[in-house]
Design a protein that fits this description.
By secondary structure, this protein is α+β, with helices and mostly antiparallel strands. Helix content is about 55%, strand content about 10%. The protein is built from 12 helices and 5 strands. Strands 1, 2, 3, 4 and 5 form a 5-stranded antiparallel beta sheet that branches. The longest helix is centred in the middle third of the chain and has 22 residues, at about 140-160. The termini are far apart.
């Protein structure tokens, strides 16, 4: 499987889920679930997009069931059959059974996730057995297993040297990032700074120019060093032009986001002239999603005046 195929499946999952449910957060969660299942079953999948379409619809149905919006679309017995098929499809978990030893998982995971990992492993990847052991509902247990898998994958990728990918972000941090983005967009539109001060303790939020944000597309992220990240947010403005802004943030001991720097794209963009050899030297770093230059350097280049 190529990285291009993985990203194509992930983007397709987000776009289709968002089209079906019109909810950014839920669509993002579904995209993560689908992309993880794709990684776990890539050897069995012949047509990635066709396969992902089926899994996306199943995930949408399950979420609708939780909110009691599915009774007219699907009977309970049919839904259980779908869930059983999905469990069978995920019976081979490459990130726990084959590639992650118990000792490695203990090192990579927090105690609560490691407990779920051991139960998941000992139950032969059967959610119902884990639910019985935990004395929780099926859906609550499935959610715990999903969080554990996402956290395990994030830690494993960071251990392997990945720096620039959303997949290195654990479940809770991703949730905090989504919450921050939504809060920032809504409150900045009204210039309501009071609800944003907890994020902007290190910079004067009043000096941030009001951004013309019509729609947020997604986000990407770069790990600079432990607990210090750069968050890249592309968005569409009211004139249907694509813009972007960059936040540098750190995580405190409670995993709260604290913005340390903010960059907005200048209105004027200049062409970057770079020798071919220099550009080729950057490619190995870019393979793992790492931007070869810092945000400050990008801003300096974009602000340069034409000769």
């Amino acid at each position: 499987m190529t990285e291009e195929t993985y990203h194509a499946v992930r983007d397709y999952a987000f776009n289709l889920a968002n089209f079906m449910i019109r909810n950014y957060d839920d669509a993002e969660d579904i995209a993560q679930i689908v992309s993880l299942k794709f990684l776990l079953n890539e050897d069995k999948i012949i047509k990635p997009l066709a396969w992902s379409a089926t899994v996306i619809k199943n995930e949408v149905y399950k979420r609708a069931k939780k909110t009691k919006g599915l009774e007219k679309l699907l009977e309970k017995t049919e839904l259980e059959k779908i869930e059983e098929k999905l469990d069978d499809a995920c019976s081979v978990d490459k990130y726990s059974e084959k590639y992650i030893s118990i000792s490695d998982a203990k090192t990579l995971l927090k105690r609560s996730d490691y407990r779920i990992f051991k139960l998941w492993l000992n139950a032969d990847f059967n959610v119902k057995k884990v639910a019985n052991k935990l004395k929780l509902s099926y859906n609550a247990t499935r959610s715990k297993v999903y969080k554990m898998k996402k956290n395990l994958r994030a830690e494993k990728l960071k251990q392997q040297g990945w720096l620039g990918s959303k997949d290195i972000i654990d479940y809770n941090t991703n949730k905090n990032i989504i919450t921050f983005i939504n809060t920032f967009v809504k409150k900045m539109e009204k210039r309501d700074f009071d609800h944003l001060r907890s994020y902007f303790e290190y910079i004067e939020i009043e000096k941030i120019t009001k951004l013309d944000i019509k729609q947020i597309f997604n986000y990407d992220i770069l790990l600079l060093k432990r607990n210090l990240y750069e968050l890249y947010i592309p968005y569409e403005d009211s004139k249907s032009k694509v813009q972007f802004c960059i936040f540098r943030f750190k995580l405190d001991k409670q995993n709260h986001i604290k913005i340390t720097k903010f960059f907005a794209k200048p209105t004027k963009v200049v062409k970057i002239n770079m020798p071919k050899k220099e550009a080729l030297k950057m490619l190995p770093r870019m393979e793992k999603g790492v931007l070869p230059i810092s945000a400050e350097e990008v801003i300096k280049i974009l602000k340069k005046k034409d000769p």
